[in-house]
Specification:
heterodimer; A: 121 residues; 0% strand; B: 148 residues; mainly alpha; 69% helix
């Protein structure tokens, strides 16, 4: 759990959010650029989950471990769910669906960092 | 050219002006159902005795979000009625709990989704029911003009 990874994930999630909203405004469905952005976001989240798992195996656990783990795993599902849902949406609101999912990830990574920094003991 | 846009292929018309926004709202509700549900599950299972009222409220909020999500997603007359009931309870809940949590913080030793009008969640819990009710009103208005 490093702040730089959280910042990177935030930047990507903000970009995907803006692109998603842009598609809605332009009256389009989602395109390759959205898939690439969401894919990159998911990779960053997986790296983060891996790093956190390694650190926790090494004995560094946050104070509120159950909540932290729930967020860590939950946040991985959101870009996937957002993309699947947005792809099944054939109207211009596909981008908005992805934008909401992506914005939620952007918020959740900061909450994760907050939980991590409250290291117990 | 239009289909080459990096922003994606041209969208199809919905033929139903509120189905798109409804989907976005359903997703928001689903995220909150998940967030509130996970939070309540953790709180109730690990430290129920610390703040039973706050944690039971979290669980109640989670259930209401789930009911509203399902109601909105199902649509139709029954779905809309279910959603209307859930969202009304939600709006009252966020206002009452928000007010109480500010007026008497000692009654809420731990945060709930609705504490301080949802300030822990960017006030989205306060905005969500208003958007939900507006959307339901819009659909109801259109359905009344076109009974089905």
């Amino acid at each position: 759990m490093t702040p730089s990874l959280v910042v990177a994930a935030t930047v990507v999630s903000a970009a995907v959010t803006v692109l998603g909203l842009a598609s809605t405004v332009a009256g389009r469905r989602i395109g390759l650029i959205h898939l690439a952005g969401a894919g990159l976001l998911e990779v960053l989240l997986l790296v983060q989950a891996g790093a956190a798992a390694v650190a926790m195996a090494g004995g560094t656990t946050p104070e509120d471990t159950p909540t932290f783990v729930a967020y860590l795993v939950g946040v991985l599902l959101i870009p996937v769910a957002g993309v699947l849902w947005a792809r099944s949406e054939h109207t211009r609101w596909a981008g908005s669906v992805l934008a909401v999912a992506s914005a939620a990830v952007g918020v959740m990574v900061w909450r994760l960092l907050q939980l991590w920094e409250a290291t117990g003991a | 050219m239009p289909d080459r846009s990096p922003l994606g292929p041209t969208a199809e018309g919905t033929g139903n002006p509120s189905s798109g926004p409804a989907r976005v709202l359903v997703l928001l509700y689903a995220i909150f159902a998940l967030a509130a549900g996970a939070r309540a599950a953790v709180q109730l299972s690990t430290r129920f005795s610390d703040a039973p009222v706050a944690y039971l409220l979290s669980a109640l909020a989670a259930v209401i979000y789930v009911v509203a999500t399902v109601g909105l997603a199902r649509g139709g007359r029954g779905g809309r009625r279910t959603a209307l009931a859930a969202i009304s309870v939600e709006l009252v809940g966020v206002l009452v709990v928000g007010t109480l949590s500010l007026a008497d913080p000692s009654a809420f030793p731990d945060e709930t989704v609705w504490s301080g009008y949802g300030r822990g969640y960017g006030f989205v819990p306060l905005v969500l029911p208003v958007l939900g009710l507006l959307l339901l009103r819009r659909t109801a208005g259109r359905k009344a003009a076109d009974p089905a």
